[in-house]
Design goal:
Shape: globular
Strand order of the largest sheet: 2-1-3-4-5-6
Number of strands: 11
Radius of gyration: 20 Å
Order of helices and strands: EHEEHEHHEHEEHEHEHEEHHHH
Strand content: 15-25%
Distance between the termini: 12 Å
Helix content: 25-40%
Length: 316
Amino acid sequence: MWFNISTSNHAPDNQEGLSTLVEYTRGMLSACGHEVTASPDLIFKDAINLYFEHFLDGPVAVEHLRAVRAQGCRVGVIATELMVQGTIPYARHGMPYLPGILERRMDGFHAVLPEIDFLWSFLERTAMAYQPQVPVCHFMPFGCISLVPADMCRSPKLTDVFFFGRATPHRVAVVQRFLDAGINIATAGVGFASQRLPGFVINSYIDRSKITLNLTLHAPDDSSVNVDPRFASCARVVQILERGAMALSEDIPLDNPYQPFLASTPVDGLVDACRYLLSNDRWKDQASQNAQQFAQEMDVRKICAPVIERTLAQLR
């Protein structure tokens, strides 16, 4: 099957920011045996046209999708966020939203659901929430396409710990614990001193750090609704593991298929867990073992291909 990834529903200045999602989705679909194209504006009649959820103007989005389907096209949407109880429960700190934008985004998403053929979600709770509303709705795991060969990411280990991601109150407080403990930690992301860095610089930091930290956007009780807002950051965790790096994470009880491949501990134990991994270079062997296990158990050819085939069968 031919899939075309359309990013036309995203602002022109955000196209580059979609590169990680687009490249992963292209790689995943291709690895599973399908042809894939990507474009900010082209629609192909013979392809299944895929959109990443972000519909800030519901009526315009509905009109666009109806026009696409009028050409005989199939349409799918990929939900990348945790969307439950009609909202994104971590948007208060996790997204740079002006007042009213979140409501517009959710309204637009709900408006397009009747206009699409299927919905995939990178997070299981989102898929479960929308299965009653969309006839074809599946959890699409964010897995491993391939490990980066070790001889392509050699680097001196200049930093003990690295964290990258948007600075939220929860994350800033955890990073401060490492600083107070005298651990050499580097950060990158909007809100931190270094701000957002290019992807090649992030990869360099991962390679030159002994441990890369994974933190949720919010603490478990810091949500706009009565729901645990924590989930594993799919793209971040996969990026760390595919580079064979040691991933240390706070405990994440939901939407976390990566649990077996992470060193996890409650937030209060992260500093001590870090010291343990750093002592006698314990992080080295564990990082390699985790990466190999991740590549075997979460190969997209094993975990994503069945979802694709099930979806296509339901569309026939």
